[in-house]
Design a protein that fits this description.
Blueprint lengths: L8 H27 L3 H4 L1 H26 L5 H31 L16 H4 L1
Helix pairs in contact: 1-3, 3-4
Length: about 130
Amino acid sequence: MMQAPDLPLWAALITALLLLTGSLLTLTGALGLLRLRSFYQRVHAPTLGATLGAGCILIASMLCFSVLETRAVLHEVLIALFLTVTTPVTLMLLARAALYRDRVEGNPETPPDTGQERPANPAEKA
């Protein structure tokens, strides 16, 4: 098994930069979760931070282990694919559930209904 000291300097620097960037992006998302006031503001910050931060960390991992093993490591590609697909879908489902709940309860802080959430019904226009 190869160890990290076998990593060339150029790869170690790029890996460290990507890890630091990914960590800062994730931290920014976590701070946004703490600082923002309403659910609708809070839901975006961790989603973006998690997606972009995890992407940088996964690229760093791909680079590091590809250089160490002298072949492409594709486990991280699958992880990135699943994160990229599931995180925005989860955001949409949470936001829609919260909108529905708040509108049913008559919460005054609910964003206004612009009519874009549901498709137009041609029978209503007639």
